[in-house]
Amino acid sequence: MLESLKENVFKANIMLVEYxxxxxxxxxxxxxDRELGLVVIKPSGVSYRTMTxxxxxxxxxxxKVVEGNLRxxxxxxxxxxxxRAFEGTGGIVHTHSAYATSWAQAGVDIPxxxxxxxxxxxxxxxxxxxxxxxxxxxxxxxxxxxxxxxRFRGIDPMHTPGVLVKNHGPFTWGKDPFKAxxxxxxxxxxxxxxxxxxxxxxxxKMNPLLIDKHFGRKHGPGAYYGQK
Length: 228
Known about the structure:
alpha+beta; L-fuculose-1-phosphate Aldolase; 41% helix; globular
């Protein structure tokens, strides 16, 4: 079942290792087949060194395992919540990459202060607020998705395809799992550059016209970056 999607999710997970975004088992990638209402996701706690495409787990939108002999990622409910809320999303990535996670632990949005950031994320990369006692002690992973969704009120998730969960780490998404990985790589890089830039000049700001220009030339109706 969904052999091609399982292969893609497996490859996308391996890309996290290749780009240095995960160590041990600190991350996961999923993808959705919206027509079937099924999600493929990395199994929980399985080493990237030994896992195969056949280890990927298929779940329905309620998190029930439809195919697979292993338990799905413990973050599965978060992924499912985001798929339900962000309709254009075809793939989701979660990592604990160092710089993005540092901003998350600090509880601070990553400000849009450079054209690299603006090429991929229209706005500051938002950080969620604190989770309540009830959210932590309840369905924690599902509630993690809920706080992300709440933070995106008034923000287009496809124009700013990433978030920091306070005290936890980053999630990114895209039209497919490979685009979600690309966004995770870029998020980590802009998190690193912002940290260094603010160490040099804490009063940094960026002209909003320049932000709109760089985002629009890749994503707007008049986009002209790259090939047709």
